[in-house]
Amino acid sequence: MLSSDNTEQANFLISGGFLCRRRCYEMKVTARNYAASGKTASLNVARQGQPEYTACCRLLYGSYQETHAAINPLSADFAVFCERLPAEALYGKSDGVIRHAAFVENNEIAYFASADMAGVVPFAEAVVTRLFTRYETIRFECDNCDAAAMALKSLFRSGVQNSWDTYVLNGK
């Protein structure tokens, strides 16, 4: 993993057969950066120990497995994975099924997942709107291998603090 600005080392890795498989953006955003579409969805809150929280964890676990398989395959079992998550999850559902989840802690969107890309933007806007009512700035990271995270990033005109590229040896 290298800073995206480190072209000298990136070129060295590329010449050795490595491929850039992921760019991770560190975001710090304010309402001035926000480009809202006005398509918010209803938002629910789940806390650790509730069945809805466990369903949000399952959604995130499956999403992480899928989106990061080519970069950093998930090796933790479900229980260990859940131990590291914030105690609160915001979620959206349709037809009685949880389709979106955001694990939040203070002003940070620590994890974000969706099983419904058609509805991800209204959910993301609802999460952002809720956090901006409580905090002046919001922080989150998003990987370009994760469409849901990039949908969240797309709500902001600016706010990238840093970005990091992950290189993987070609064929591995």
Identify the overall geometry: globular
Gyration radius from CA atoms, angstroms: 17 Å
How far from one another are the termini? 16 Å
Output the helix-strand order. Answer: EHEEHHEEEHEHE
Give the neighbour order of strands across the main sheet.
1-8-2-7-6-5-4-3
Number of strands: 8
**What structural category arises from helix and sheet content?**
alpha+beta
Helix content: 25-40%
Strand proportion: 25-35%
Q: What is the compact description of this entry?
A:
The protein has 172 residues and is of the alpha+beta class. It has helices at residues 7-15, 51-67, 78-83, 120-132, 147-153; strands at 2-3, 18-30, 44-47, 88-94, 97-105, 108-114, 137-143, 160-169. The chain has an eight-stranded mixed beta sheet with strand order 1-8-2-7-6-5-4-3, sandwiched between helices.
Keywords:
172 residues, alpha+beta, eight-stranded mixed β-sheet, 5 helices, 30% helix
